[in-house]
Amino acid sequence: MRNDQPKVIFLKDYQAPDYLIDETHLTFELFEDQTLVHAQLILRRNPARGTDLPPLVLDGQQLELLSLKLDDRELTAGDYQLDDSHLTLQPAQASFVIDSTVRIHPEANTALEGLYKSGKMFCTQCEAEGFRKITYYLDRPDVMSKFTTTLSADKQRYPVLLSNGNPIASGEEEGGRHWATWQDPFMKPAYLFALVAGDLWCLEDSFTTMSQREVALRIYVEPENIGKLQHAMDSLKKSMKWDEEVYGREYDLDIFMIVAVNDFNMGAMENKGLNIFNSSCVLAHPETATDAAHQRVEAVVAHEYFHNWSGNRVTCRDWFQLSLKEGFTVFRDAEFSADMNSRTVKRIEDVAFLRTNQFAEDAGPMAHAVRPESFIEISNFYTLTVYEKGSEVVRMLRTLLGAKGFRQGSDLYFDRHDGQAVTCDDFINAMEDANGVDLTQFKRWYSQAGTPRLEVSESYDPAANTYRLAFRQSCPASPGQSEKLPFVIPVELALLDSQGRELPLQLMGEGAPVGIVRVLQVTESEQAFTFLNLADKPLPSLLRGFSAPVKLHFPYSRDQLMFLMQYDSDGFNRWEAGQQLAVQVLQELVGQTQRGDSLLLDPRLIDALRSVLGNEALDPAMVAEMLALPSEAYLTEISEVADVEAIHSAREFARLELATALKSQLLQRYQQARAASRAEPYAATAEQIARRGLQNIALSYLMLLGDAEVLAACEEQFANADNMTERLHAMAVLVNSSHEAEKSRVLAQFAEQFKDDPLVMDQWFSVQAGCSRPGGLERVQALMTHPAFSLKNPNKVRSLIGAFANQNAVNFHCADGAGYRFLADQVITLNALNPQIASRLLTPLTRWRKYAPARQAQMREQLQRIMAEPALSPDVYEVVSKSLA
Ligand code: TRP
Ligand code: ZN
């Protein structure tokens, strides 16, 4: 903990390590009140850095050094220097061995970084810089070592002892203890180290790789969760097959293990051969996990598995290169999910998420490039920009190079860099070399922050039969970056005739049309393209599939958007047209609200959604996506100054008008879907998920009407559903309704039924935290004292406090500023317990510039109050100080 001048780390200062660690031999003696860690490190001077012998500076934090040896010589206090984060000593030869013993306290570790206890089990989280809280080490990803790990613990409490690689020996000790030794044959950086000790059961299976090797698969959990693993196991096997088929990548060890833990800062971690997962990303059972949770498990299992190549076999040189593994791996898992489920729906969900959240980050005080230039605390840079925008950058590469060229590039990248720690430039170079292209300008996506704005205007010349699209790109200033150079923006497009047919595309200078869907490359700040031989003025379908992470502006009329909603052959752009139409209509309602005019919903939105609802040929998942109005958070993001109440009431007004006008169709769709649901047992198939999605959104609209008939249907769904997707949604719409008696009854019944299942209780907290009815803050404060709540569990913090601050705008932004004060109080408490979680929880307060002056002042006041705290962690310090700068 520090408050004075935290150190800023710069990419430009990178230097290769002075020393290398060829072998790492660790022994952990795990006890209830302490853990002893013995480390034997086989070191040598890095030949790339010279032949002199500079001091060796090992990282280490919160370690109690008990003994230290250099080549069998016991060192005493004068032989080395210790400060709160380093151990420095002077080697006498180019090759040497260091033996250390330290004492650590996993049982008191609430930060959940390094070695800690989750419930009754020991586990680790070392990425990014947690290994230094385990032993003195060169804790940086470009130092790769061969690890051998021995664990010893009480046999009864900890019958299962796991680490990376293969088990090579085990035995009993006196005093009821036992031990096991694991060896990982692959060189790896310390951030991929893991150990687990606990009373765990496992689901076992196996996978035969493409070269006919048998791999044992094991998913470990606490005994009560053994029945919730089949979905994760199925997802793992699908991921392994997919990576062989799509990327030619085979798994390399003889065993692959996943362990589920309840207390975890993020989603999951790709430790070599021993992935550790937040239980929310592994456990799934129809009765306790929603469809969304099933899909998340599938995606996260795939993500961590894919890291075995994109992250572990080829790792990062330094943490500025984080997107090298994360952006690429998110892209890989998104494509996997698209192949397993509906491609269009997956793309819609990802784009909506990116535009709502990453665009907001890119416009805020923590904005940074996909490859940041500097940081204070690397944990703060596991961001939407590094992950989601990083994935968009990889997607653009595939769009530009084509699927085949992209695969050639990834093959070259993996072959060339297997076993190495590399940079984003190495990735791009492999893509360039495999395709014979120059991506110099494209690399600006890695170095320039901010969301580009792309304005498009059209002109049609009826005499010449030509149609011209003029593009103008710009990018707002970001912290530390005032001027931006033009990006390479791939714009996938088609031109539609009056029947919605795609027209042949012939650009000026071309002898003949080249296809009906094309990718234009906008590379200049202003650039125009002229299409030939168009007998009538076409309607452009622009940026198909969201081919670049930009804010596109084209002056579509509402009638044109309605046309595109119906006729665009690109499913994504049909949805997008509907969203743009809804945004126009909602912004008009926001204006009416602010002026105090009576509200009038453009009937075209009703007509458009009526025909969507009536379209039996359309995938029900698409119908559901198109019925969903842009979220309050997205409307906030695209506002110059966000008016929280006006956005909420305008959107609620539109929902009520739509429900009223479309009641009979909504009811028909609802009843049809619910009947199908009753007739067939739950399965997490794309078809059923689509049906339930439509059923649930129909129910949300219908419940706005306050009808007895609908209330009865909702209660029926809550009471009789055989799955959490229907049950939870029925509860959520009741909670957001004015049926007070029914609401209390279902909340109590649900809590009674699921009180022993922490992941279900998380959902119970979330539903209430997100309820926009008056009194939200008081409800959340009351729930903080509920026996199932704990500030020490990150899932609980996210599901109650996080859901309140991020998904309940009207209550969080209540006029007296009490919501802000509440959040700041929690951040201050968490700063001492778990700095990573504290810093993430802060995000909504960092967005103060979006609001009117009175709110800005209240939000800043809370940031200043946090800033004045005496012992701020670097995590919280960095976010608060940048937000106030
Ligand atoms: N590498 C992890 C992933 O797959 C991220 C992660 C897990 C992480 N736990 C963490 C990052 C703790 C920082 C701190 O995305
Ligand atoms: Zn990852």
TrEMBL record:
Residues 71-192 form the Aminopeptidase N-like N-terminal domain. Residues 559-885 form the Peptidase M1 alanyl aminopeptidase C-terminal domain. It catalyses: Release of an N-terminal amino acid, Xaa-|-Yaa- from a peptide, amide or arylamide. Xaa is preferably Ala, but may be most amino acids including Pro (slow action). When a terminal hydrophobic residue is followed by a prolyl residue, the two may be released as an intact Xaa-Pro dipeptide. Transmembrane segments: none annotated. Its cofactor is Zn(2+). One of its GO terms (biological process) is proteolysis. One of its GO terms (molecular function) is alanyl aminopeptidase activity. InterPro entries: Aminopeptidase_N-like_N (IPR045357), Aminopeptidase_N-like_N_sf (IPR042097), PepN_Ig-like_sf (IPR038438), Peptidase_M1 (IPR001930), Peptidase_M1_dom (IPR014782), Peptidase_M1_pepN (IPR012779), Peptidase_M1_pepN_C (IPR024601), Peptidase_M1_pepN_C_sf (IPR037144). Keywords: Aminopeptidase, Hydrolase, Metal-binding, Metalloprotease, Protease, Zinc. Its EC number is 3.4.11.2. It is an enzyme of class 3 (hydrolase). Residues 232-445 form the Peptidase M1 membrane alanine aminopeptidase domain. Belongs to the peptidase M1 family. This is Aminopeptidase N. It comes from Pseudomonas fluvialis.
